[in-house]
């Protein structure tokens, strides 16, 4: 009869072969812990990537309103569009609004996203 010993790393060893037999309960709990940590690390990573991408759009020349108006230089239309798209608010307020809308799955204003992606 072969006896089984538990090693310090949680693996079972048979004394005659010393080939590890995995402890499935230990491996399952370890894997769930790793998955949980990775998912929790994804949150600040996504916030960091969106922060850098969002504010990189402000470094590009021009604005989405200039692209929408093209050759027309109407200050009233420009002010109306700036307010309509929320570009008259401070950049940090725009970013928080963007994050909240993205968390809800609300992508109602694709014009800005398409234009910002073309600017980058």
Strand content: 5-15%
Helix content: 55-70%
User: How many strands in all?
Assistant: 3
Task: Output the structural class.
Answer: mainly alpha
Low-confidence stretches: none
Describe the structure.
The chain is mostly helical and 120 residues long. The protein has two domains: 1-41, no CATH class; 57-120, no CATH class. Helices cover 61% and strands 5% of the residues. The chain has helices spanning 24-56, 64-69, 75-84, 91-104, 110-119; strands at residues 5-6, 12-13, 20-21. Strands 1-2-3 form a three-stranded antiparallel sheet, with no helix packed on it. Strand 1 and strand 2 (12-13) form a beta hairpin. The N and C termini lie far apart (69 Å).
Give a short synopsis of this structure.
The chain has 5 helices and 3 strands; from the N terminus they run E-E-E-H-H-H-H-H. The chain is mainly alpha-helical and 120 residues long.
Q: How are the elements arranged and paired?
A:
Blueprint: E1 5-6, E2 12-13, E3 20-21, H1 24-56, H2 64-69, H3 75-84, H4 91-104, H5 110-119
Antiparallel strand pairs: 1-2, 2-3
């Amino acid at each position: 009869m072969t006896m089984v010993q538990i090693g310090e790393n949680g693996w079972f060893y048979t004394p005659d072969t010393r080939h590890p037999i995995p402890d499935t309960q230990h491996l399952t709990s370890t894997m769930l812990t790793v998955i949980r940590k990775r998912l929790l690390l994804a949150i600040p990573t996504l916030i960091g990537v969106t922060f850098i991408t969002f504010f990189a759009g402000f470094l590009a020349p021009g604005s989405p309103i200039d692209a929408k108006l093209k050759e027309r230089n109407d200050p009233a239309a420009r002010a109306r569009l700036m307010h309509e798209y929320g570009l008259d608010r401070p950049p940090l307020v725009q970013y928080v609004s963007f994050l909240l809308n993205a968390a809800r799955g609300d992508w109602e204003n694709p014009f800005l996203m398409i234009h910002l992606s073309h600017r980058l």
